[in-house]
Amino acid sequence: MSQQRKNNYVISADIGGTHITAAVIDLEKKMIIEDTRTRLTVDSHGTATEILKTWAEALTQAYEKFGSPAQQVALAMPGPFDYENGISLIKDLHKYEAIYGLNIKLYLSEELRIDAADILFRNDAEAFLQGEVVAGAGAGSRKVLGLTLGTGFGSALCVDGIVKDLNLGSEPYKDSIADDYFSTRWFLGRYHETTGLSVTGVSSLISMSKHSAVVRNIFDEFAVNLSLFLRDIIQTEGSDVIVIGGNIAKASGMFLDELTARLTAYAESLKIKLALLGEDAALMGAAAAFDSRRGLNILFNANHPGN
């Protein structure tokens, strides 16, 4: 592969609690190459070998669809994580316990046969917000708080285009930490605690909500908890916009109005928006790590399919 092609293309991946999505990013044309998009299911409670092999397989499939060997890889990764050295520090978060302390960068370097220096990691909430600020729900706003609600609770802040991870999920809340209250497992646990029954995901609760006052009350409780947790944060940070993404955002019809009413009571001019770009925001935000390395001006192509 020529040096020019190496500079122009990045295999980017978004690591979720139940899946990995990978695709090749054309940095010169500022777009995702759709034919390379690959999504595989990941068992975050599996063994280290099972997890890492699935990640490597997704990256491999993406570049095989592209037709050229991998030369640069960027991953949007949940924390806590040593992003510079590529070592997982995730523990006690009910996911990816098996890879704690492992050097993911070294593993992928050997598995994909590329230089470890050409594998970059970025916090997933940071990557998500980067994409949304450039061409999504946060575009045009000076100070944006990004929240990802899914298997975990991600958070990042963008001020004048500079994005940093906030790691609010590790902050104390009630009898535990925020991650335990603003993630899928809270909904499943709360429903079981209230009814004695089990459901497989938040989508199941949505389907029951029309006929279940219990489910509607659970979503109301979620909105109250999240508004109370964010109250001091939005007053301290003075954010113009909050952008909400992640799988739980798909249930926004159940909680967004209540959350908005409560948060705007604390900050009248605050706007709460749903993310627009889906996984594509994290894919582009992760690839942007190579932008800062080479000084390229990457702008997300808001018109690509899936937007």
UniProtKB/TrEMBL annotation:
Its keywords, alphabetically, are: Kinase, Transferase
Native organism is Mucilaginibacter gossypii
Which spans are transmembrane here?
A: none
CDD domains noted in UniProt: ASKHA_ATPase_ROK
Q: Name one GO molecular function term.
A: kinase activity
Give one Pfam family. Answer: ROK
- What this protein is called in its record is Glucokinase
Q: Write out the similarity annotation.
A: Belongs to the ROK (NagC/XylR) family.
Q: Which InterPro entries would you find in this protein's record?
A: ATPase_NBD, ROK
